[in-house]
Amino acid sequence: MSAIDPTLTAGMVRAAPAGRSVARRILGRAARSTEFRIGFAVFLLLVLAAALYPAISGIDPTAMNVRARLLPPIFLGEKWSWAHPLGTDQIGRDMLVRSLVGLRYSLLIGVASVAVTLAIGCTLGTLAGYFGGRSDTVIMRITDAQLAIPMIILAIAVLGVSRPTIPAIVLVLGLSNWPVYARIMRSVVMAERGQEYVRAAQVSGATHARILLTLLVPLLIPPILFTSVLDVARMMIFESILGFLGLGVQPPTPTFGNIIADGRKYLLNAWWIATMPGIFLCLTLTSIILMGSAFERARNSIHGGA
């Protein structure tokens, strides 16, 4: 194989730095917006609370205490306890600790499932767009078949016949959304593969792997990663829905879905059991959506020449 001619492949030198430059510009512009700062502050506070408070309090989120059952939150002004500032559930478990531990699992599953989605979708979409031909046809037919299967049907099929575990839930959620990224990556790669810098690299003897990893991926991944921030919120919603339906992480492990499902029986006399995890879920989703929206607006303004 002939050596790569630097005069023909100058784009290979510029591609990765260009991708990183775009990412830095998007992040910098987004970070200057008020909505990003509010979203990041709320998100950081929630993550720190979820990481630290359960350990600092020393309260086991699964430990029962019948004597402290159905204690209301401290702001109700009724019979409450400083040891349980957001009250307790029907068997005396602390709602603050359970909500924060539920936040841990929800974030873990949301981020991991988006990572699976990115790995599958970006890989298949890039291969389909770059090689075209029969590879493109096969991958796109698989994509069409996957899009025809609703997420809830896939979840019932996979999780309904086996014990729902975190890896199984991550796999189900990850498989539900990868076709979207595959189509995006395919269309962009098909447009980029005809550019001069890619042709120059091919003529000078660069391997397909080098062209993909050095030229195309650095330019394509930054906007995909920023867009995927919003998908984390969506995966958290799906995880909560699965937990509410009994297809998520199983009790006694607390998650937003199964806590809310348990609390729906007590909405009239102990509404905080279902409401507190719902509030934490809404705050987390709102903070992620604020950050994701700031990224999206910054990306659009940069690409629009603003």
Automatic annotation (TrEMBL):
Xref: PROSITE patterns: ABC_TM1
Q: Does the keyword Cytoplasm apply?
A: no
Q: Which residues cross the membrane?
A: 38-56, 105-131, 205-226, 232-249, 270-291
| InterPro entries the UniProt entry points to | BP-dependent_transpt_permease, MetI-like, MetI-like_sf
For this UniProt record, the keywords arranged alphabetically read as follows: Cell membrane, Membrane, Peptide transport, Protein transport, Transmembrane, Transmembrane helix, Transport
Q: Which residues form the ABC transmembrane type-1 domain?
A: 103-292
The annotated topology with respect to the bilayer is: Multi-pass membrane protein
* Record's subcellular location: Cell membrane
Q: Does the keyword Transport apply?
A: yes
Location, primary (coarse class): membrane
Q: Which PANTHER family match?
A: D,D-DIPEPTIDE TRANSPORT SYSTEM PERMEASE PROTEIN DDPC-RELATED (PTHR43386:SF1), OLIGOPEPTIDE TRANSPORT SYSTEM PERMEASE PROTEIN APPC (PTHR43386)
Family, according to the entry, reads as follows:
Belongs to the binding-protein-dependent transport system permease family.
Name of the protein in its database record: Peptide/nickel transport system permease protein
Which species is listed as the source? Aureimonas altamirensis DSM 21988
